Structure formats: structure tokens, C-alpha cells
Amino acid sequence: EIHIKEPIEKEVNPRLLPGELLLCEASTVYKYVQEDGSNRGTYGKLVCTNFKISFLDDDSASDDNEPQFKNKIVGENDITLQCVDQIYGVYDEKKKLLTGQLRKYPEKLIIYCKDLRVFNFCLRYTKEEEVKRIVSGIVHHSQTPKLLKRLFLFSYASAAPNNTDGRNQTVMFETLEDWRDELERTKGNVKYKAVTTNEGYRVSEKLPLYFVVPICISEESILKYEGRGIPIWCWSCHNGAALLKMSAFPKEQDDSTSQMQKAFLDGIYKTISKPPYELLKMDDLSSSLPSLQDIQTAYTKFKQLFLIDNSTDFWATDVKWFSLLESTNWLEIIRRVLKKAIEVAECLEIQHTNVLLIEESATDLCCVISSLVQVMMDSYSRTKSGFQSLIQKEWVIGGHSFLDRCNHLHKSEKEEAPVFLLLLNCVWQLVQQYPPAFEFTETYLTVLSDSLYVPIFSTFFFNSQHQRDTNKSGESLKTQSGPFRFLTVWDWSVQFDPKALAFLNNPLYAEKPKPDRSQRKTARFKHQRQLSLPLTQAKPSTKRGFFREETDHLIKNILGKRIGKFINSSDEPPNSLREFYDSWHSKPVDYHGLLLPRIDGPEIKVWAQRYLRWIPEAQLHGGGTIATAAKIWDLMEEVQSLQVKMDEEHSHAVSGDVHSVPMLRNSARLSSLFPFALLQRQSVKPALPTSTWKDLEDEDDLVKRDDEFVDLSGDML
């Protein structure tokens, strides 16, 4: 029985972006707000455009309900077509996956989103014709294969006024000067050069227009095998050692071709393995890391744990949370990737060895490892503009196939893999372990992951720079003819106003002190980045391997063999790597030097803000990192107001680069998943009879108390 108030007959129209067209709509749709098994919710209109699916109700225009962290492009009840993961229809209480042409139309519609939101719509009270139109429209526009030019990206680019914020400091790596500047910044210009061999994409459509190779590599070598087998520079360490990547030759070749390619590679290796180049270590990532298929399988299992739309399912999952989490293998993949990045950092930092990452196309796991190593070793990559420039260099210009890996066109699920999400998960581990080292927050990483599915930015919607350039030309509504002017995701003012943008900046960031002018002359010969390893002497580490002996003892005797097996599931690192890891962790952290992630089993955590933000039961009321951040923001606001008063006293202008401080209304209502969730509903933990516990846990000491009820604890937190 559904208890509802009569819908108010009031016309609510969707707010359309430039180039956005209303395709179909249905009135008197009931959106459920699942709450402890009840069927409460609200009436409204469900619409589908060429950009999004949107639910419009009377409350959506109310200022009182407007969230403090509001996205100007995608509202609370909006789902971009690229963000739709799966759509289910409910027929006589049975769920069925909806794809293609439908013979029968459901009474309920459930939409699962890639950002892990779940929407439940009841269509019982909607006119039959409207149900047919809206259901078939949503399924067709969000699930069927489409052409690239049919993406909303092109409609928006042709209709939107070009008034982007010119203050974006991100280096886009679209010009030769950008690459030369990066070589100079990292002091790599002595041994490496930026080349123009691929102008007009005459070498390869997969390679960028400009890239960097060792000085001794000739243009003929680059042209010979379409760029395959050529070491491409990623980054140089302060000691001269460099990180390189290379796309491998296809494995299925006839003998004569293989021999020619082998001779070619031997010549390349001999060229770059002698002075002035350091020793070269090769690492084939396709054999030392999980395959893209393994990563996709693990993430598919992992995300199912969070696609929860009612309390009953949540508490049922909570009882066996750790075993379910372990069975997905997602956290183990993150740990293996971080461990590989530590191995590469050790080669560069301690062994002064060049590292050459090899992969079939050098655009997937190569991007993950090279980006992680730079975040760990280069403090510039831990600033917001530096991190964005890194993503541009390694991923966008580097040729990561965003279109295929995110399956934006629904062409082939075989190509789909959350490779970029894997990087963000790894970076989040570092952000939560060393907050003062990063200029950006976990909220920044969360909105960056959400932006993968917002097709008004070109950043994550092409497979290569060549594909982007060739699709730039087109008919523009404003200029009659001419190239499209695509937006970049790095202009955050398109999505957020200044108050919301303040949540992306870390108030605890330990900014690098600028040297005094008197010291600059003496310090000029030093490289701009500090030596990575902390120089402060400290007591030798008492750790043995990755664990203290006491921890080993605790795992074996208290936590049991199962968890011990999980923690030690991967091969132990070699001795030199173990010494490097232990030595670094025994010393104070230099937030502007090398950062090594802690990769012991329990240290690899679930990115709660991204994965749990839509589940009210998982919120800590008034707790979490936001409780600390709220106090810091209060202090910052007070300091800034005092600064303004002092400046007024001295008749000076307000001091220049002052970050906006978030104004937290109703701070008592904050939850640990803020700014994405206020307290939406109270969820009562079910008191399970011990007979149920017996089925779940088979714990003898609990079963003896027949008539006693056990309050289920929130393991998920």
C-alpha cells in the first residue's frame, strides 16, 4: 500500500543546456525514496533529453533543499546518458534487464548509475502511451550503440557560447613548447629531445603530435615501425634517471618479421644503455600486473557491493562485508599496482636506473604506473594544476582510449575497463595517508571521477589526440562554419560556483616554502625538487618485512589464518625493495619529497566518499574527516576576516591569492560523506534474533541465549 499525497498540478519544465533537446517525457511518475522498506517518495515528471534523464518535482526548485555543493551542469535528480550503467524493469515483482526493443512495458523502472546512484521509479499511475515513450526512449538513448558525432559533446560545442575561464593553469601538452618546458622543468633536456616527426600523424594516429625520445634516436627509427619499439620519455628524476614507456610489437608474427623486430630492438637498447644514459631496466607490465579483463571483472564485482537502494539489503551485506570485499579482489589489485610503483621508484631513486615500461599499446597500465610514480616522486604533481597537467600528458595526449575503456558509445563491452578509475583509487590511498602533501582533496578526486560521464567536456571522450583533432571540424551554429570549441574539464567554474570550488582545495596543504633571495644564489645549482628521501636521522626500523613481528603474531593467533592469507596473498618483495620500503617508513615524511604508500593489507582502504556517499546507513553523523575540516574552515574564515580588517586599517587592498572558504550551513547536519550527503534519513539497525545469527555465523556462544536479540554492528564503517 502506497501512502501518497495527491500530485499538485503544476507545470515543471526542465532546465536545458545549449544544444540540449527534449526527446520524451512522462507525467505522474512516482520516485521512491527507499526508507526501511516503506514506499515513500514523491510525484513528478520524468524526462529524457539528448544529454540526460531527469526527474522533476515541485521540491526541485526550492531554495531550502538546495545543496551547498551543487553541480551547475548535473543536478541531484539528473543522470547523464553516459552515466547510466544498467536499466531494469519490474514485472510482477520480478526484475528484468532492459535492452533493445521491448514487447511489454514494466510497472517499475530501476536505473543503476556508474557513479553508484540507484533510482527507483513507479509507472503504475502514468498513462500507458507515456510509459511506452519514456521507457523505450531511455533504453534506446542510453543503452544502444551510437556514432561518435551523436554524443552531446558536439551538440553542446556547436551551440554554447565560448566564454571559458582563461585563468586555467593546466599545461595541455598540445604544443612543442609545452614538452620543451616540461623537459627543462625536470632537467631532462640534456639527454632527451621533443620531436616533430609525427606532425600530420605520419608516424601513427595513436601517438600524439609531439613527444619526447632519447637524443640518440633517429627520425628513421621512429618512422620504421609506426612508433612501436621506440622508448618514449615520461619523466626525469632529479638524479638523471628517467621513466620511459614503449609499445610492444604484436606477439603473433612470422619468424622473419620477429627476427627483424628483435634486431631493431637490440639496436635501440644498445643505443640508450651506454653513457650518457643510465643502466636500463625493462618491465613488461602485461606479465607483471593484472590484465585489463581481470581489472574489469574485479571492479564489476566490487561495485555491486554499493548499488544498494534499501536498508534491508545494506544490513544483509554488512554481516558478511569483509568476505564479500575480499572476494572481489579489487583492493588486492590496487595494492599490486602501488607495489609496482614502489619498485619503479626504487630503481629511479636508489639504483639510478632508467625504467622502461612495456605494454602492447603503452596507453593503459603504462599510464597508471607512470602517473603514480610521478605523484609519489614529484611534489609538483601533487598540486592541483600539476596533477591536471600530469593527466593531460600521460592520459589525454598520451592516447588512453577513454571512449573505449568507458564504453561511452556502447560499441563493445570487451574493450571496457576502469583503468583511469584504478589510478584515482591509487592516488586516493596516498591522499588519505598523507593529506598535507596534496593541494587537492578527496572531494576533488570524487568529482573528477564523476566528470568521466559528463559529455560537455572533450577531456574524457576521445581515444587519442588524432581522433579529437579530426573530429574538431564541423558546422557551428554561432560561426556558421569552423572548428568546434570543446571545453576542458579543468575549467571547474563550468561545474561549480566559487563556494563549491573551495571544497576541492585542501586547507591542510603544506605549501612548499619559497627560498629567500639571499639564499637563491647559493641554491641555484641544486635541482628545484628536494632530494626525495628524508634526510633526518631516526631510530632504525623495528619492522621485519612489511609487518612487525607483533603484527604477524596477532594475525596468526587472533585474526585467524584467513585474513593472514589475504594480507600475504602476493609474493614478498625482493630484499632491496623491502629495505628501501622499511628505510623510508622509518624516517620522518618530507611532504615535498618522495612519498611511499603504506601497502600492508589493512592499509589499503575503500574510498568511502566515492563508493558509500549515496548510502545513508553508511554515514557517520557529525563524524569523519569533514568534522576536522569544518573546524579548520572556521579558523580560516576568522583569519581571513581579521586580515581584511588589518588591510582596511592600513588602507591596503585585500591580499592577493586568498582561497574562498566554504560556508557551512547547519554544520550539525554534516555527515562523514559530506559534501555529497546531508543526513537524509535515519536508518534503524535491525535487531536480529540469534536464530538468524546462527544461520549467518554459527557462533555457539551467541546461540545459547535463545530469546536475546543482538544489535548488528556497522562493520562497513
UniProtKB/TrEMBL annotation:
Ranges of residues in domain Myotubularin phosphatase: 173-611
Compartments (UniProt record): Cytoplasm, Myofibril, Sarcomere; Sarcoplasmic reticulum
Protein keywords: Cytoplasm, Sarcoplasmic reticulum
GO cellular component labels: membrane; sarcomere; sarcoplasmic reticulum
Major localisation: cytoplasm
Domain of life per record: Eukaryota
PROSITE patterns: PPASE_MYOTUBULARIN
Pfam families: 3-PAP (PF12578), Myotub-related (PF06602)
GO biological process: phosphatidylinositol dephosphorylation
Family: Belongs to the protein-tyrosine phosphatase family. Non-receptor class myotubularin subfamily.
PANTHER family linked to this entry: MYOTUBULARIN-RELATED, MYOTUBULARIN-RELATED PROTEIN 12
Protein name, UniProt field: Myotubularin-related protein 12
Species annotation: Peucedramus taeniatus (Olive warbler)
Lineage of origin: Eukaryota, Metazoa, Chordata, Craniata, Vertebrata
